[in-house]
């Protein structure tokens, strides 16, 4: 967990973080990754460069949130656990917030992103491009709309990201 927590940066530049994050996503979508090691390396970069994490941390004084021994940001500032104080904060696992669902449905226009067929409301399924079981984040950028048939075929495979 510590490896994925950013170092507190007094010269924080959210635009730079967003650009680096976009480059990582582009590596996945364009099939630039050829080996499993490359995929895992980009997954680590995506987790580390998550713009919402950096934006959240920017509101704190870097000296107050950094570890005195290793210098990283204390994971408590980023990661939630079952002991968090709010009901929303306790939601873990594959929970998909309603706002993310709506954004994905609008972006994908109710079209399956694999077979390109229209998906009825009662058949919509959401898929993590980088599988949740392999560390994929639950973000609009990593979620896509699939029909039930295509979602069942994919399972938690990375083969689409590695190329045929």
Total number of strands: 2
Helix content: 40-55%
Q: Number of helical segments?
A: 8
Total domains: 2
Strand order of the largest sheet: 1-2
**Helix/strand order:** HHHHHHEEHH
Uncertain ranges: 81-87
The main pleated sheet reads as:
2 strands, antiparallel
Assign the structural class, choosing from mainly alpha, mainly beta, alpha/beta, alpha+beta, or little secondary structure. mainly alpha
Residue share in β-strands: under 5%
Molecular shape: elongated
CA-atom Rg in angstroms: 17 Å
The overall average pLDDT, rounded, is: 79
Distance between the termini: 32 Å
Quaternary structure classification: single chain
Describe this structure in words.
With 164 residues, the chain is mostly helical. The protein has two domains: 2-86, no CATH class; 98-155, 3-Layer(aba) Sandwich (His-Me finger endonuclease fold), CATH 3.40.1800.10. Helix content is 40%, strand content 5%. The chain has eight helices and two strands; from the N terminus they run ααααααββαα. Strands 1-2 form a two-stranded antiparallel ribbon. The longest helix is centred in the N-terminal third of the chain and has 16 residues, at 14-29. 15% of the residues are buried.
């Amino acid at each position: 967990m510590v490896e994925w927590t950013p170092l507190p940066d007094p010269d924080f530049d959210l635009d730079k973080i967003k650009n680096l994050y976009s480059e990582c996503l582009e590596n996945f979508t364009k099939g630039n990754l050829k080996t499993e090691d490359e995929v895992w390396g980009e997954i680590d970069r995506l987790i580390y460069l998550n713009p919402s994490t950096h934006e959240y941390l920017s509101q704190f004084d870097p000296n107050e949130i950094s570890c005195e021994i290793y210098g990283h940001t204390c994971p408590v500032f980023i990661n939630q656990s079952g002991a968090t104080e709010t009901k929303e904060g306790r939601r873990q696992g594959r929970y998909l917030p309603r706002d993310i669902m709506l954004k994905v449905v609008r972006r994908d226009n109710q079209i399956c992103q694999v077979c390109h067929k229209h998906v009825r409301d009662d058949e919509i399924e959401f898929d993590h491009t980088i599988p949740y079981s392999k560390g994929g984040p639950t973000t609009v950028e990593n979620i896509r709309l699939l029909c039930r048939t295509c979602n069942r075929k994919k399972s938690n495979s990375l083969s689409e990201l590695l190329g045929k």
